[in-house]
Records
---
Amino acid sequence: MRLSSLLALFRPALPLILGLSLGCSLSLLMVSWTQGDADDSCRDELGNGRLFQGRGDSQGVSRDEAGDEDIQPRIVPYHKDPNKPHKKVLRTRYIHTELGIRERLLVGVLTSRATLNTLAVAVNRTVAHHFHRTFFFTGLRSPKVPHGMTVVAHGDDRPVWLMYETVRHLHQHYGSDYDWFLLAQDDTYLQADRLSELVGHLSAGQDLYMGRAEEFIGGEEKARYCHGGYGYLLSRSLLARLQPHLDTCRNDILSVRPDEWLGRCIIDYLGLSCVEVHREMTYRYFELGKNADPEREDSTQFKNAFTVHPVSEPNLMYRLHKRFSQIELEWTYLQIEQLQMQINNLSERTPEGKAGVTWPIGINPPFKPRTRFEVINWEYFTEEHIYLCVDSAPKCEMRGADRADVSAVLEIAVERLNERYQPQLRFRKRRLLNGYRRFDPTRGMEYMLDLALEAYTQKGHSQVIVKRVNLLRPLSAVEIIPMPYVTEATRVQVILPVTAQDQDYVSNFLDMYVMNTLDTHDNVLLTFLFIYDPFDAQRVSQTDVFAGIKAMIGEVEKRYGDVKIPWISVKTEVPSQVKLMDIISKKHPVDTLFFLSSVWTEVNADFLNRCRMNAISNWQVFFPIHFQEYSPAVVYRDQQPSAASSSFASESLRDGHFDRHVFDEACFYNADYMTARTKMAADILDNEELLESMDVYDIFVRYSGLHVFRAVEPALIQKYVRRACNPRFSEDIYHRCVLSNLEGLGSRSHLAMALFEQEQANST
């Protein structure tokens, strides 16, 4: 009786008790199993080479022990010694330097003095820009080095010596910066994308000598060397191990072929032979026949090749590049179609189903505005006109890039229609009825076309039909452009040219300069450039036209004791911007950052920081487009402007425009200007009037080779002023000045309202 009552009491907890007992029992059994020889079995696996390819049993054990130690974290305690002075920790400029991240591939092309300007140029133009760095190694440098090529001359044309110096140069200068090195001859066509993909799948920490394996002369050895005509890969670790033996190889190994000499050196001192296949990765190559035609080559070996050899002439190199570009394009289109089919099939399993698939498949869906202010407007256009212009005009002529864009879109639309409906129908465009386009920042440029088409059947019948076509020019892959390191602490040297006609505006410029730079202790210096005409220069001892400005400068220097504002006096009839900069450039160090200003500019901290960031030495110059206020007489007429619009507040941007015709303001380094000016010297000998026909912007565009960054600058605002256009300047500069004055009067609506009021006043 007691037992039955006890069982009835514990019956609800019986499953819990059984579960706990079973769990404890199984855990004890698992502990006994895992405490066996698990480590030994793992060690046996490593030793047998199933998980790790070792060179011997002892090496495998030592690596295992090192691996066990690596798993254990090592905590390094920090103890600050109070007796030692504190040292500032210097961090690297880029994070990839601190992490030890290297670029994957460097390409070295072996060329000669005879082929540097032919085959080497063809290699540079076809594939060099697809690699991170490409060097051309030659024995003796040609008198004229081709533009845009990095040529390293070793001073000796002997092939083996050239190979020795090339390998030594690569290790000495770039051995720690790259994981892989590709060496090839200039008669080799390289498929850049495939080679980059190959090294992306290879481990950088292994010794590898990979290419087309060739037997040595005699063919008695099993070891192979890599044929130089098809290129070969050398790993960074192999290059580092080979470096100590290069001098010995140069003295002891006799060979006529440089690739055979390098292969013998690697085999004798490192014990490595050339391989074509490594861990299922194959180095593919193709031997081109004597009279082969790349357009007719259709074999699988040719299509999959990484390198093609021999290429006898530059024209053949360009034809090969065209053929491989077509192959890559066809393969890319095939991949896109396959991905679109996969997306279409998988869309059935999504919550939205087939309706959730956007057009085109694989492209981001259209932007969905949350408010009416975010709606993207469509631009209406025909083949001749656009009905939404930059200056708010209702209609303007289509020209330039817009005309080329619309022509290309119409051509592609008809071409795609023919691809879809042929051979049943063939279309020919008659005219564009309606065209709409808009730029969607999430997708690209969208087009909607109403086309009048003439459709032809297979029997020759024709009929005019109207068809609506939707097209999308998608945004391509976003490219991160590497830019040099710049800071906002660079000193800016402001250069202010002043003529006798500009004196009335200097007072406002100085007030803003003092408030925005001197009061804020910004790292900025100011230099005045007083431009005297010959008549004023003769009377400077009696009456100095710039005496008032010099007095204002003296007051500023007196108020700020540690501030000096120098000035330079120049006498000239034609104040050419280039001639003035020549004088300024000689009086400043080469690392000076110039801001070439005008008396109507109001200097502020925001713009100065952008000047520092956008002007990069030996890389980029910055020509900002300032915001110009419209003429108050036209905009406000008899009304007084409000306080907000009269000051340089954000609302003042509504009563002005960005003046694209003025290039007076510029940010650049003195060294860049001097370099461009040096390149210009030869042209000045033939045409002495060239200095007066050009400005600083023209010099950088024509002679510098730097990035010329031209962009609107909202922080650079100027009051309205009617500029004095000097007819002695070039026709282009004079024409730009006149256009600036005309467009600076007011917008079309302002001018129309002014004319309307004038006509009303005249009629009454």
---
Amino acid sequence: FFSLRNMLSWGEPPPSFAIYFPDTPFSDDHPYLQITKACSAFWKGPGRPGLDAAALPAAMADFDALPLDLQDILSLKPKVLIQCLEYAAHQIMYKETVGCRIHVRIHNLPKCTRYSKLMASSVGKFCAIQGTVVRVSSVRPMVSAMEYKCPKCEGSQVVQLKDGAYRPPDKCMAKRCGGGRMEPWRRMASTFDWQKLKVEELKDGNEQGRIPRTIEVELKHDLCDCVLPGDMVTVCGIIKAGTGTERRRGGGTPNNAYILYMDASSCSKIGSMKNKPRVSGPADQALAGLGLEQWTEEDYQLFQNISTVPNPFKLIVNSLCPAIFGHEIVKAGLALVLFGGSQRDFGDQASPRPDSHMLIVGDPGLGKSQMLRAASHISPRGVYVCGNTTSSSGLTVTVVRDQATGDYALEAGALVLGDRGVCCIDEFDKMGVDHHSLLEAMEQQRISVAKAGIVCNLPARTSVLAAANPIGGHYTRGRTVAENLKLHPALLSRFDLIYILLDTADQEKDRLLSRHVMKLHSRMPAPTHHSTQHTLPPSEAARALTSGALSQKLKLQPHEAKMFQEIPPQCLRKYITYAKQTCNPPLNAEAAHVLQEFYLGLRSTYQNSDCTPITTRQLESLIRLSQARAKLALRSEVTREDAEDVIGLMKESLYDVLRDEAGAVDFTRLTGMSAKAQQTAFLKELARQVEKGHPALWSLQELRGLIGLMRVKIKGTADEFIHRLNEGGLLLKKGNNMYALLGGGF
């Protein structure tokens, strides 16, 4: 061990001194040596904190473990303290040998600095920030030292390039030379890995309507390639200032405007750190659900109180978006999507996704957008976007060109930013062709990128909550869901739950709704949508009977509404966080049997080739929702009660989607064409055949063959279908079983 005492007595610097203090001349009484001595005592303290030979060249230093005098130096001269810590660690681990350079990573600061506090006064300070990585550049070599040769005297000079700024020497420093510009000797340059991030502040409910603040973060050495776009990170480092041209290329027009950036000392993903940082300020709410919270006794008591009520499902459903009247079944679906299913790892095989997706279709003015906003606010990690202002790249990933480096970088979209959370897409019907970008993300839970020479996969483990208005502003039962929305069947099949909200006239329901709205805008006590639900409207009663009365089960009775207290959004967010962290319930034998019997019943009842196929995708949806129902009650396994509730929810969703104008459930109504649309297509095909040279008269046998060839959806036999076209004035019967097409009839 090359001790400080030997250094002071010999008066010569150890071999490694120039590695950590390249521009500092060595002297026996240099103040850095006293700081290094204190750092050596810290490293040789109990357990030698952070010095692990297997982890080198990185050495972790916990801020709480630093002595107070070193903490004071960190606040005043952070760069000096980090250099002394690295130098002391080098002396302990490598003794007199040069070895490799050690990089000290200081983490676990007492509190994180808000982005609004990062001003000019922060330059040179050591602080911690938390945020979402929205852009990641590629890893590039950065020159730290360059050797220059004089073309006149062939002398050489090594220049340290601080912070990546390229500043060549003005002239040769050799005596009696007087040479001018020196030429760089690039083969002797010293480089290190360098990467730039763009970190966006976490959502803050107190500052709505403002563009989120961002800051650039520089990662060096072993910190490179430790995060991806969409990751939520805690970064500790030194705040610096510099112009883009000065810091990167050295060229460009001089500019007095400087950019704040952070030179990272440590970078950790939120939820993966052993020492969880303590956060203060409004960002606390945004960090819920990310493994950051240290639960208190009050939190555990809250979780127990919610999970032990007689019906926690009813409690949580009626606490979601209380300003919206009714729609308990829709809110039940939202609750299950927020909790999510259980993660199952099958090794090398493709694991089923644990996240569910939900689509709400309905007439305007029924509260679809407000329910989506409430879900994004309550979710531990929620992103809300509007379809008419969102592009395909804004949803997935954008490849942008960095003006400073000229390199391409990945910038995360809404689905990547909502990783392990929910992505709420309003005005889903107005996205146009951008729907196709959701297919991979919704099923495979990832986004593949192949742009500008970048080929990679980014995680998008998010639940999609979408709301759409039908074409023409009103949902028509005579059309299929695909015709009402103009959505591709492949996209519709990826939604686990689809709900239809119709604005129908119902005197009792309208009276209760108007009473609820008046309470919202009056000085009466705080309104809840429960206190007005004394009776069940007739239309709701019919639907409750069809769906197994789950909607009636979730409604509060008059005596319950008087004593009901909804869960505050902050507490509900904590509860969802805790459930997702601690619960991963599997199916027990009884619940698996119930789900399997329901699935087999659907398969056996609706196996016609014209029907919407009932596949294992529906069975996996039932399993995911059942796991979310068990997780909602903090159960260790999925019970029969959970399976029955989910079956009732699925029946309600199917009844909404598949019911036609006559009230009958028809499994051919999810995708494809409605009966009227197929009738029109049949008549157009007749007209096309006539244009191609077919005689104007059709025999009954020819019409039957064309109906079978086109697989026209008909009620009854083909002869009855042709008879209805004749009665409707679309086909004219001439002679014995001969028919003519009337022009303009369609």
---
Amino acid sequence: KDRPTVGGPSPRSFEWWNTAHVMALRSAVWTTKSPRLKDRKTPKRQKVAVRTAGGGNHELSMDVLSTWRRATAVCFDMDCTCSQDDSLDGLAEFAGKGEEVRRITSMAMNGEMGLEEALVKRLQIINPTPQMIKEFLAAHPPESRLTPGIKDLVSNLQKRGISVYIISGGFRPLALPFAKLLNIPPENVYANRIYFTTDDETGMPTVYAGYDTDQPTAKQGGKPEAIKALRSKHPLEDVVMIGDGITDLEAARMPGGADLFIGYGGVVERQEIRESADYYITDFSVLTKTLANHQVAFVGSGAWACSAANLVARNCKIREDFEKDVRMWVYEEEVDGRMLTEIINQDHENIKYLPGIKLEENVVAYPNLDDVISEADIIVFCVPHQFVHSICKQMVGKVRQDAVAISLTKGMRLRSDGAQLISDMVRRKLGIDCSVLMGANIAEEIGKGELSEATIGYKWPENARLFQEMFQSDSFLVETVQDVEGAELCGTLKNVVALAAGFVKGLGYGSNTKAAIMRAGMAEMRKLAKRLYFTVQDETFFMSCGLADLIATCEGGRNQRVAGAFAELSGQKTLGMLEEEMLKGQKLQGELTSNEVQAVLRAKGWELDFPLFTTVNRIIHGQLPVEFITQYQRISEVEAVEPSSDAVESAIEDAFTALKV
């Protein structure tokens, strides 16, 4: 804050900036704005890159790599970064004033003259005209002066939807031809404007008349100001600055500036940049190679997993930034004399769990979990929730540090300190961020291409965008909400309500009764979610993950179907028996979730606060007749009968004990 301004009392103001301030910047600890890949418990940027003998970060740390890969905007310096020379020095040489201008440049670089003063003097010596600039560009065309690898790098960034800018302390007429070659629109070029006076006879601008000193790039500290201006106009999450000079370093060290600085020494090597950059390169192809395509891995191969994998596989075929194959871990089993992975890979159909729906040819099944996850940077969990913990234990130490996850699994796990959501389990076990995708997602209907919706609950916006692009299609509409817990609890608790809806349907009740049960269920879902997590938002319950999922599950989900059969038989068969008979290997989540929810309610003394949830649980364990579902509000008045067997009682007791142990 005490840096002297150019033109201040000290004639060596630039020298002060070039030494003391650089040293201060070098030792400063700065934070990542919104890291994509970690849970961000330690916000400090940890530099674990190997330093070469000459100093500088020549190898990528995982933190720098993740910031680079999630960037939404990349800003390039112009001179000695996009071009192989300093355009103003080149113009001076062309005008026959090269020696004089080089002397001024040297004085500035040695700290004997301020940058702004040096800029003014160099322009006065050159005395440029539009005709001079035109002839200079004709004699030294930008095509011959582009830095090797810059065009390929910019093209790859643009293919991925990343905005590219030029931010230069040089001049716009000299920068725009380079921008055109790189397909960077003129509005994305921040550079100084030169003024010319108009000739009285010709009416054409001919005589140099100064430059626009109000432009941010015309001043010391102007590049971070330019990036601030970008952020005010566009929703940019992570911005990277690439350049060769002190002003480029400054752009990433000032509040509101870039989130990452990559030093470039392919034209001019500067010690300060080499030692202070977050990452230092001399070849742009190194950066291009780091823009590796996303590799998607599916953990799970049931009906919903196969339908979801189909959605992703179609998008991977047409996206430049995704590997074409979607790897899917399949729990290997024999079906009709053949292994299930063989059937999926050869016939492109999961005949056991999603018969009649063709899978995309780029959905590739693997029986070995390690083969699926080892190279993946996007991991999709879609397995019954009771298996996620053991699967995560197998994955520990085998997942890429820069990976992100999304859970399509609906349920929770009981621990001694209470219920744990699946996303939190993944986050804690694997050390990676985990979003959730929940919604009205009947697998068979999505597999047929019928219009469906889903909600992504997220913590980090950049991950939400990635997952939305990965799943979205014309028939599968995806919305996002920054409420992981709310979205996930909606997807979990609705399975308990679906059991209640199935009971009333099996008993022969009509639409009024079913609607009343669903409304009460939604109310208890919201009430419990907000008690468990104060951050849960009301709006989440009116999104696809809430209201729409509840309607779909209560109308056509497996929990409703099995519960309906249970009611029709007046509880003569358990839900477990009916699951085995009706679901052909698929799992009924409602009963297990009900036990888990009831364990939480009992441990906290909330059972009577949630009469519908409590009634459902007592019905499935034979403590109340199924007919009592329509009288759930009287639960406090009724003593539950003893369960029909010790085995049935043990299910809820075991869940309750898990909270006590």
---
Amino acid sequence: EDFEVFDLNDVDAAFDKFHALRYSQRVSLAGKGEGITITPYAAGHTLGGAIWKICKESEEIVYAVDFNHKKERMLNGASIAAFSRPSLLITDASNVLPAPTLGSAGFPNRNARDKHLTDLILQTLRGDGQVLLPVDTAGRVLELLLLLDHHWSQRKLQAYPLVFLSEMANNTLEFAKTQLEWMSDEVERRFENLRDNPFDLRQVTVCHNLGEYRRLRPGPKVILATFNTLQCGASRTLFSEIAGDPRSLLLFSEPTATDTLARTVEDLHRERMNRDAAFVPLQLTMTRRVPLAEGEAAAEDQEVGRADGPAGSEVSGAGGGSQKRKRIKRGKASSRRSRRRDRETGLATHLLSTNPFGGRAAADEPGAASGQEMSERRIVLDSVRPGGVLVEGFSVRTSPSGASEGPLVFPCSELDDAVIKGSFVGEWSEYGESVDLLRFGQGPTPTSVLTEKKDEEVAQAPAELLDSSNSRIASTELALELRCQVASVDYQGRSDGRSVKTILKQMLPQRVIVVHGTDEATEHLQTFCKASLPIESVNVHAPGQLEPVRATSAVSVRQVLLSQELLSDTPMHPLKEFEVGWLDATIGELQAEAGEGLVQHDGEADEGKGVAKRLPSLKPAESVPGAPPTRRGVLVGELKLADLKIQLERAGIAAQFSGGQLLCGARQTLTIRKQGGEHSFMVEGALNSEYFRIREFLYRNFLTV
């Protein structure tokens, strides 16, 4: 159906608000987002997919939805190691529980999954059947194309066409060829060393519409067609054609969404298997675009004119959406009226000022046509192609008696595509000759011929001949028998439930928010977090739709400026990737500091200097000569007995666990155990050389300031 909610201008306006970032590029916000930094990391699910880390002061929020920790052909795995003990983790439960599949179960590795997929396809092709894979436009389909292209090349399967059918097929592949730096290390090495772009798919035939697909040779094929829901697009049409063929296979590469034709087909196939029936009935509504009948365009123009109202007045407020649809409809009607005027008037104005040889004759030029001669020129429609196809846009010089004085000549300027394509099917050569593609078995079928064919073939007319300005949507109810085979292989590229649980244990978030997923999967992940993670139950949330959740913790953090004098007098000690020091200072006067980042300028974000803000400064505290120190030593770092055991063994000190404590020394005379928390431990045993050696080792690895 026609889409009237928004138009391409709205899409362009939305994309103008986006800012492209590279992985691991840290960006500081300004304005209302001052103090917030965001950093994207590779998610490993789709090209450009990201896990987001959002930091503000001591808070660290990780948004990890739809990630894949495993490396694949096109992408590296997600950067999970970059996150440790975040303040808040927002993740999804969509893949926590295993999704029901048709004819397959879980696979131990990627090779087993790929083999199962290709075996299903080859079995169908060798049985003289068609294989239809409903896919998305530019996401996981790229991984599937790489797999199938490689398999076709290795197994020499050129006898079976491998087709990618999508209106955006060329755009998708050309874009993928330019994004190799975002892909896996293997892809980058192949291009750097061999100049081999993996998306030069030599085994894949690209088709942009069903008309191009119909011209392929008959026989078994593998068709990757959009869309994966079967709600619209070429996949829906092809499914209606193979549904009744028991030799053909409908293969889903990811779990189907609810309330879609894909889910309905899956359910019907299960019902057929349970009943052991040959087929199950299926009612399917097919829509197609047909030319407007005579009088329909004029009637719609009148309707739009009435809706336009006096002087095209606009109404704002609650009716804004309705008014927008009217504006889009008025634009379509205006385009339709303009095209109709072009068809009626042709190129008369242009030809009246054109000489017989294709150039413009000046008024003082010899042989320039007089006003009388100019008025006698006319446009003719001459049947120059067999089958009644007319060529428009040629002029003829005529004498007062009406006799022709010269051959047909081609106008010098470019012709309107809509006029040309509405008249003949072909293109102009560089010498001004028309090239009839129909004679060479190429090009779309002209409208004059289509009107003599079946109604279903009219729907395959070129898109430039049938659009929203000169056509309407017609629907047909089909009664099908679902006889084809239906199977599914999980190729969605997301971490499974077992991997998600392992990652959560490694990440150890302080709070968790679970989104997406079914109620059962959400409750399952909540229960796991409460039972297996060292966090309180109240810190695991599963909000409903539009339910707000506070993302930050109730912590009190203040920003201060450190003077250069204070920093130079403070000894700093390295601790892993940080430097730690103890400050003795007092709060001084406010000082200005300019922030940097994405700054708002009149509603548009730009990188640059932010508005200066005033922060309290710290200055060295005045010390009293001879006064005793007023602070005690502080142990910095987290003691992990497992890490300590490894380091002691590397230093040549024997150590082993017993009852939650670490026994050290050749005779196990020393005991190390935690006491009271992460930063408190006790060393017990004989006062000997091993005791002092272990104590020195602890002081080196766990800093005291």
